[in-house]
Each structure stands twice: as C-alpha cells, then as structure tokens.
Amino acid sequence: MISARTAPALLLFAPLAFFAAFFLVPMAVVAISSITTDGGALTALHYTRILLDQYHWDVLWVTFRIALVTTAICMLIGFPLAWYLVRIVRWRAWRRVCVILIIVPLFTSNIVRSFGWMVLLGRTGLVNQGLMGIGLTDRPMRFLGTETGILIGLVYILVPFVVLAVGNALATIDRGYEDASADLGVGPARTFWFVTLPLCLPGAVSGAIMVFALAVSAYVTPALLSGGQITVFSMLIFQQYSSVFDFHYGAALSVTLLVLTLVLVGIAGRIGESGRRAA
Amino acid sequence: MARIRGLVTASTLMVAAALSPVSAQEALHVAWYGGNWGDAFKACVADPFTKATGVAVIPEVGTSTVTLAKLQQQKSAPTIDVAWMDGGVSELAQAAGVLDPITEAGVPNLANTLSQAIYKDGTGIYAVGTGYYSLGLTYSTKEIKTPPASWNDLWKPEYADAVTIPSPANSSGVPFLFFLHKIWNAPAGDFKPVFAKIKTLKPALFFDSSGAASNAFQSGEAVIGAHFNVGAFDLIAKGLPIGFTVPKEGVWATDARLHLVKNAPRKAMALKFIDTAQTAEASKCLAEKLYLGPSVKGVTVAADVARKLPWGENGSVDKLYLLDWNDVNARRAELVDTWNREIARK
Prior knowledge:
The structure holds two protein chains of two kinds. Chain A is an all-alpha fold. Chain A is built from twelve helices and no strands. In chain A, about 80% of the residues lie in helices and about 0% in strands. In chain A, α3 packs across α7 (about 145-170) and α9 (about 190-215) runs antiparallel to α12 (about 245-280). Chain B folds into two domains: about 1-130 and about 255-310, Periplasmic binding protein-like II (D-Maltodextrin-Binding Protein, domain 2, 3-Layer(aba) Sandwich); about 135-255 and about 320-340, Periplasmic binding protein-like II (D-Maltodextrin-Binding Protein, domain 2, 3-Layer(aba) Sandwich), CATH 3.40.190. Chain B is built from twelve helices and twelve strands. Chain B has helices at about 1-20, 35-55, 65-75, 90-95, 175-185, 190-200, 210-220, 230-235, 265-275, 280-290, 305, 325-340; strands spanning about 30, 55-60, 80-85, 100, 120, 125-140, 165, 205, 225-230, 240-245, 250-260, 320. Classes of the chains: A mainly alpha, B alpha/beta.
C-alpha cells in the first residue's frame, strides 16, 4: 500500500532526480572547476583575472546593453500583439491561426533561423535590395557585424515569449475591474494606465525576465550575426571551452555571467512583486 | 574441486566467446565526426574492416574536442578503442595521457604511410594521419575572373566588406595566425605585426564555423576569403560559382588522425582497424569522398578528384604548411585573448 505521504514523494522523485542529474550536478561541476586549478587546489585567480580586467566589464556592458534593448523592443512589439490577440480578435479561428503563427517558429532551431537572417540582412540580401529599390540608400547598409543585426535576430526569436506571457496575463484579468473604473467616470486611457497595466504587470515582468535571461545567454544568434566583430560574453565562454580548452577560466566566466544575470533578474522580480502588491 | 570447476567454467566461457557470432559486446567502438565525415569514414574504413574481420564497428559520433573530453572521462575504464581527432587536439590527447603507442608490428601499413603523417614523441607513435585538408583561398568566380594569386589580395580595396577569415573560435583560427606570421616573415615569436595587419582588413565576417563560411560564400556576403577545401568543393559540387586556389605562399593544412586509446578493451582489433585505414584503397576512397589529401604513399586519384585535394592541382604534401601544434597550443590562450581585444570589438 502506498500511503498518502509516500505517493507525492514517489511522484516528486522522478523530477527531482532529473533536476539533480541534469541541472544541479553539471552546475556544481562548473562551479567547482571555476575555483580550482588543474591540480585541484583552490584558487580565486580565475575570478580576479575576470573582475580586475576592464576588458571583461566592457564585454559585459555590451552583453547587458544588447539584452536590455532586446527586452525593451520585445515588450514594445509583444504587448500590442498580445493585446490584439486577447482583446481585439473576436473570431476564434483567426486567433488560433495567430497563436500558431507565433509558436511555429519556436519549433525551428535558432541556428537555422539565424542563418536565415544572415541571408536576409546580407549585403546582397532581401532587406538591402528592398532599401535600395525604394531609394532609401545607395550603398548596401551594414547589418551583419553590427549591434543592430544582433538585435534584429534576438528580437525575432524572443518576441513570442512576451506575447505568450502578456497574453496569458491579459486573458485572466477580470473585465469587471475595468468596467468598475469606467463606471466611476475614468477615461479609457487612465483605466488602462491605473487598472489594466498594473494587473498584467506580473505577466509582463515574467515575460521580460525570460527574454532578458535568454538574450544575455544567447550564443548562436550573436555569434552568427556579429560576424565575429562584436563580442558578447557567451562567445568568450564558448571560446574557452571550444578552442582554448581552459575549462577553469571558462567556468569562471560562466559563473560570473550567471551571478550578474541573477542579480538583475532579482531586481526585476522585485519590481514585478511591488507592481502586484500595488494592484 | 571448486578451483577445477572454476577453471572449467572459465574455459567454457572462453570457448563460447570465441565461437559465438559477432555480438555488440565484441564490436569495435570508434570515435569519429558527424555528417559527411562520419559517412565517409564508415564507407572507406569501417565497412571494409567489418567485411575483412567480421567485427562490427560502433561509431561514437562527436567533434575532436568532444571525443577528447570523453576519453578523459573514461580514462580509468575506456569503452572507445580507436578515435579520430584532428591535428591540435591530437597533441592535447597525448599530453592528457589517454593514448597508447601505435606499433609497426600492429599496423604493418605504417610502412606505406607518409613520414609526415606519422606522429611520434618520446613514448612512440601516438597518432597516424588519415588525410590532409587545407584552408585555401576561396573566391566567387562570378565577381573575380582571374584566380587570386596571393593571400595579400584579401586586403585589396575592391573586396572591402566582402572578405572572410576564421575567428579563433574556429579550429583553424589560431593556426591561421601562425600561417600569416610565416608568410609575412614576421619576427620570431612576435605576432604584433600580424594583428596590426588584420586590423586593417575590412571583413564581411570572421567565421566561427565552417558552416558559417559556406553560408557567407553561398549568399554572396563573402566574395573572397579563407575556406576549407572540403567545404569549398562541397559548394562547388552544388553548382555554386566558387573557386578554390592554392596561392603562391601555399596554404595552412592539418589532418584527421587515428589514435589508439590507452587500455583499449579490444586492442588487437583496434590496431587492425588503424591498419585498414592506412591502405591505399581507404586513402583513395577518403580522397574521393572528402577531398582529403592521401597520407598513404603512391595513391593516385582521377584528375577531377586531384584538383580538389588540399594542395591544389599538381600539388603535393610539400605545398602544405604543416605546423607544430605544440607551438600553437602553447600560445593559444594568449593569441585568442589578443584577438578578442584587438580585432573582435568595434
């Protein structure tokens, strides 16, 4: 007989074991290797090498700047899209088509999609042909190898996360609050600002956090679209593992990025929390 | 009594093992690369080996660095018998102590192997080359009518923003710096002039992966640059207007090498496998499928294959700049760091 207590424990065992084997253990391996030498002695050298070097801070700034701008643009595009899907579309079938259109690209690998952007954004690509065709520029514009190129690729890949998170939050808002606000004589703009927006803030913040975390750690998209001319932090990590074979330094770089990202995400989480309380 | 019974059981088991048909247990485990490389290794070496010996081959697919990581993890109880790894990683594997020496007695075909393709150190032969590939000058035949004659053509103003060379994240990136250092006669050990000149290059991209280079040539993003002969001729085979040439300074090249894993569970078969790879037939087959320059002496290929080899038409292994990977590995971290600071930022 399985008692009422052991049943949840058994159910929990599988996911916990999976989590431990595929997340905690590899994470511990990386963390340990970041504070040891080849001989196994403890050292803080890898971290001082990173943190005392202005170059790494410069790369971190580029990485976080790209991630922040990506998040901002994703919100600006994703919020209206979610609003359109949840509040404006009346025809169910069309809404379903829209949702499928948003989700389907997620089934394709980032590598393929980034290669696609390389073709589109290239000197002789469709975008430049179009820009030159309508006479906006005479010479092909440089997208590859610029931050703009990386931003286009990241925003394209990450927008669906905002649409899904915000859409979900919007759909669960009780329209009664907005009606009550209107009944009390408040205009639609103020109702949106003081009622609707705070109510979907938690969803928006979780969408933003997802986008930010994925953009900070993205490797494939920046690596392909930067053309090796802009360096983000994940590229430094990849280099150490793939080409320099200094796993200790690579691990320290990974942990640095992880900790700094967690700090920023923690701050963003606080903002979401206070938003929820205000609502 | 118990001892006798034990002996009987053991000998029965041994006889049974000797008589039993090929089972997964007995199969030889060989680490090789993915994609068309793995397919070619299977067709050119593994299949003839299985045909001759009746021993099945189980591939362990991974890039050179992944294979090295696996060998390091299973150091105490290896399951892989033979491993293909590229030049560079090969030396790291030897330094990591995961290889056993390959003996002339175990691999008689070493007598037919080019001396350059037999890699020895104090402990003996640690690797055998199975074919060379090079990083040559690749260009769009649509935009460039006469084949470029020199690597310095990459700096011509008409190719501004349309040039590609490897980044240090690619396995050819750091060796390419050594190659440029040599052809420009830079002072020994000083890479400053090399970086200074690369800084004046107007690139379309520095490629991380061979696939990114292929993509750039295919889309027209790159008009001229460095690419592997294997990748370039794959594009040419697809009908794209692309040329591959060995300029007057020559080309940097390396090779895919076979290694005997330390304490390999099936050592005799492993040596036999390496021997099969060093036959003229296997070498010719790899030249036809992957355009690898044969490392076996006296292999002749059809003219259409010959022009795709790493040393170009009418070339030979002497046209290749084969460097000492230990020198590269010693300066790898420092050169990657300098590249990051000097080149890979705007």
